[in-house]
Amino acid sequence: MSQGLFTNPFGIPPPSDDSYASLSRFIAEFSQAVPGDQFASFANQLSSLSEALVSKFRGGTRPLDNMSEIRAMFQTLDQKFTNLEDGQTSLKEEMIRGQSSLREEMIRGQNSLREGQIRLEGKLESLNSIFLANKGDVYLQCREIDSKVNKTRSSAQRSENIINRFVAKDTKPIPFVNGQEPPTELPELKTISDVDNLNPQQLKTYTEGYGFKYDENEPQKSLKRKIADSAGFVTHQDVLYELSDSNESLRDVGNQSSAPNQRAGTRRLCHH
């Protein structure tokens, strides 16, 4: 029997002899080597090969065409395996090219993201510079708004005090220009006489608290009249009230004790 019949792409060695056992073993190994999804393509050929080998072993004869068919079967099988190997190689090459392309896309994406981050950081720095440049202006505007609000509050309370003076009701403290109430250690100004009883230290505190511009040599009587006017003491009796003066100037206040003098009015109570 020709050894060419036993050539196969699976590496199965040909039978060592023409015995039935050797030939049967070869056919069994060949059948197992064929992939399951391709077995149907070779079932008839394997069956014909088995019949030819069995017939030859028993001394029978088969047409030469069957041998040619068997050889053609092996050639077809060998070609299919060759095509399969070529397909696997092509698939590997496609996978390698795909991985390379994907890697390049990822690198481009990372570079684009990095460039966008740099541009964003630049814009943030620019905005921060603009904010710092305008911070001073915003602060001044806020101060101006606070000042206007405080002046409005003081003006409203002064108007209320004027009305209360005409109807003989108690007045309320006028807030200082910083928006705060006068300190509790200052005498509360309920009447024009409370203003007249202020000592130089208290007079200076009220004058500065209400934001009056003054000369330290300005007569105390003049400063008292300004404070009385700010507190809303502008009735006919208030205007006719003769305020006392003092030989002391505000320049001498620093040499005095911070304690109020005997002429000071009633200490301020906390208003809620």
Binned, the helix content reads 55-70%
Give me the Rg, rounded. 57 Å
Report strand %. under 5%
- Number of DSSP-assigned strands: 0
Structural class designation: mainly alpha
Q: Note the main sheet.
A: none
Spans of at least 5 consecutive residues with low confidence:
60-66, 257-267
- Number of continuous helical runs: 7
Outline type: rod-shaped
Average pLDDT level: 78
- Give the distance, in angstroms, between the N- and C-terminal Cα atoms: 124 Å
Element order: H for helix, E for strand: HHHHHHH
Task: Describe it.
This protein has 272 residues and is mainly α. Among the domains are: 3-95, no CATH class; 170-255, no CATH class. Helices cover 62% and strands 0% of the residues. It has seven helices and no strands. It has helices at residues 20-33, 39-57, 64-166, 192-196, 200-209, 220-231, 236-240. The longest helix has 103 residues, at 64-166. The radius of gyration is 57 Å and the shape is rod-shaped. It starts with 19 loop residues before the first helix and ends in a 32-residue tail after the last helix. 14% of the residues are buried. The model is unreliable at 60-66 and 257-267 (pLDDT under 50).
